Amino acid sequence: MRRNQLLLAIAAIMAMASNSASAQGLAEAYKDMFRIGVALNQRNVSDAQQQALVCAEFNSVTAENDMKPQLTQPREGVFTWGGADSIANFCRQHGIKMRGHCLVWHNQIGQWIYTDSLGQPATKELVLQRIRRHIKTIVERYKDVCYCWDVVNEAITDDVNAECPYRQSRLYQICGDDFIREAFRAAREADPDALLFYNDYNECDPVKRDRIAQMVSSMKADGVPIDGIGMQAHYNIHYPSADLLEAAIEKYSAIVPHLHVTEMDIRIDHNRGGDLLTVQQGGVDATGGEMQQLLQQQERQYASLFEVLRRHADVIDCVTFWNLGDRDSWLGADKLPLPFDVNYRPKHLYTIIRDMQSTEQVGVDQRAAERPDPNFHIYLCFGQSNMEGAARLEAEDMEGVSERFLMMAAADMPQQGRKTGQWYTAAPPLCREHTGLTPVDYFGRTMVESLPDSIRVGVIVVAIGGCHIETYMTDSIDAYRQRAPQWMLPALEAYANNPYMRLMHLARLARTQGQIKGILLHQGESNTGDAAWAQKVKTVYERLLKDIYMTADEVPLLAGEVVRANGEGVCVAMNRQIDALPRTVRTAHVISSEGCTNGPDRLHFDAAGYRLLGRRYAETMLQLLRR
Ligand code: XIL
Predict the structure, then answer these.
(1) Would you call the peptide bond into 102 cis, given omega within 30 degrees of 0 as the criterion?
(2) Rounded CA separation 19/457 (Å)
(3) Which of 22, 387, 545, 601 meets the CB 3.0–4.6 Å disulfide criterion with 522?
């Protein structure tokens, strides 16, 4: 055992040295942007040099084949775990998280699923029941190591002329699109913490792209728990263009909070896509000079597509290469599609990807390349009308805002000349164009007054008057929007109809610039009497932490009480639940509204009330910072 470990360590060092690579591998180079993953086969995890390479370069692993339906359940009820376990155990040993791949696919699935015990065609109900059982069994088994799953693979057709957007697979013919819906539901039930993906290829082709987007968004509107879209990225040196990739990212990221590039390879011939029947066709027949040219084209293509991925690091969480080295490529080694060659040595291409500098680019990319400033403290704020700010701004509120107190616009504010995602001195309004004074105004003022001059404080406020906590729950926002009253629609629209996602994306961006120190919540009025409120807050808080890669201990939650009005507040009953929040959320702290004056509606604070409440949020936060 010890000898093995020693050999492994030596091999690791040798591999690194022969890599010429470097003190830092790909995963390290991209740690502030996204994970870098790799698809592995059995040989990769049993060879010491390859193991070392994986550990040095990658921080996400996908089993290339071993977790697929055919391999894990070749016959009904007969589960074979050998291959899947050996990859999972390798990852467990080395602390690498896995992308589970894949639960339901028309390829590599046991044909038994289509036939009943009497040899008759299986009914829809039987197929769905088998899908549910398969998913439950495998997801539960790898819960500890798989942080996400490709739940359904390749269900949209490649035929641009087809009337029906779905691939006419046997699964579809028997179940219609219910096999997709049921699969996601079963996966959520088996592991509520795993991120669930729909995964497909040719995902940048406009027709297929729009069909994927349409399918996912309408299913989400029906409450199907889809967290992300997997873009397989089986590309070639000519296709797609950077513009097509960018358009796909923009389209998908408006619908789901997570995008993963799941199976990237860029082959040097004209073939592309992920269709198993055609993918190995074609070949490379090039002379020395031509080959040189192809490789240069490949480097340019990788660089230009990676530039797009880096620019969208706020929505992309993971980029996985499909296979470790060219020797393993499912396309055949002659397509030379990967950063490591047939002997697992890094190519020039590898260095280009790893050492890419964001040169001329502006925006997210450039900022992401800078180190987050430890003296820039950032607070995420969300809630309903009292967070939005319901009191009219008074002269004193407009004056004396320190330049050390900043706000990131969470929606465009044309009147103030503010653009979403940019920082400005935090003169009110902090929420949107026409909102008023919020508790966050005096929270920020008090923070900068109390902290050393070297510290800047930034706030990001996303709030919608009248909204329930459900507005911030990724699984229910689409259904919620359908029911939302007319007057709420413009506010939702300002956040592209998904306020959670807006907050989360901006938080990810902010994380590359400063340190997120806390979350301020003022919400509850609309959930008065909802016994599950605390649990729902917990769900939102934990999801947000997870999505921004932070922990509860790093980022406390400060929740303010609603208007008391000496016991006559319209929603005062809610304070009992708010006060009890720390029992459900260990790192929650309650901000008292005692003595905070209110307006005539007994629902909203007045300006003086917001000022006092805001200072109290700051006092609590300052105490926490001192700890
Ligand atoms: C491929 C594997 O790489 C091959 O070894 C296997 O023979 C067929 O499947 N889309 C997917 C992957 O989602 O699972 C496929 O993997 C490639 C296309």
Answers:
(1) yes
(2) 43
(3) 387
Statement: residue 272 has pLDDT above 90: no
| Tokens encoding 541 | 């808080």
pLDDT in tens, 215-257: 999 999 999 999 999 999 999 999 999 999 999 999 999 999 9
Atom of ligand 1 nearest to the CA of 322: 3
**Residue 398, burial from CB neighbour count under 10 angstroms (0-12, 13-18, 19+):** exposed
DSSP string computed for 402-431: -TTEEEE-SS-BGGGTB-TT-EEE-PSP-S
Rounded Cα distance, 155 and 17, in Å: 43
pLDDT at 3: 46
Do the Cβ atoms of 574 and 524 come closer than 8 Å? yes
Ligand 1 mutation pick, 40, 107, 328, max ligand atoms within 8 A of CB: 107
How far apart are the CA of 279 and the centre of ligand 1, in A?
A: 10
User: Can you tell me the distance from the alpha carbon of 101 to that of 142, in angstroms, rounded to the nearest whole number?
Assistant: 11
pLDDT in tens, 302-355: 999 999 999 999 899 999 999 999 999 999 999 999 999 999 999 999 999 999
CB 554 within 8 A of CB 588: no
What token pair was written down for 500?
A: 């959670």
CB-ligand 1 contact for 64 (6 Å cutoff): yes
65, 83 contact by CB (below 8 A)? yes
| Distance separating alpha carbons of residues 25 and 355, to the nearest angstrom | 10
* Residue closest to 573 by CA, chosen among 614, 169, 565: 565
Does 203 participate in catalysis according to the annotation? no
More confident residue, 22 or 85: 85
What is the average pLDDT value for the chain, to the nearest integer? 92
Q: Are 224 and 186 in contact (CB under 8 A)?
A: no
Structure tokens at 360: 């001329």
Q: Let me know if 263 is a catalytic residue.
A: yes
Report the DSSP beta bridge partners of residue 200.
231
DSSP type of residue 346: B
Q: Is 48 left (phi over 0), alpha (psi -120 to 50) or beta?
A: alpha
Question: Tokens 């007969």 identify what position?
Answer: 78
User: Which alpha helices (DSSP H) does 142-284 contain, by range?
Assistant: 170-175, 178-190, 206-221, 242-253
Structure tokens at 521: 């919540």
Ligand 1 near 276 CB (within 6 A): yes
Q: Judging by beta carbons within 10 Å of its beta carbon (0-12, 13-18, 19+), is residue 119 exposed, middle or buried?
A: exposed
- Best residue among 38, 40, 65, 151 to mutate for probing ligand 1's pocket (most ligand atoms within 8 Å of CB) is 65
388 Cβ closer than 6 Å to some ligand 1 atom: no
Give the count of beta carbons closer than 10 Å to the beta carbon of residue 69. 23
The encoded tokens of residue 570 equal 């319209």
Angle, CA of 134, 139 and 141, to the nearest 5°: 100
Q: Residue 536 above 60 pLDDT?
A: yes
Active site residue: 182, 203, 263, 388, which one? 263
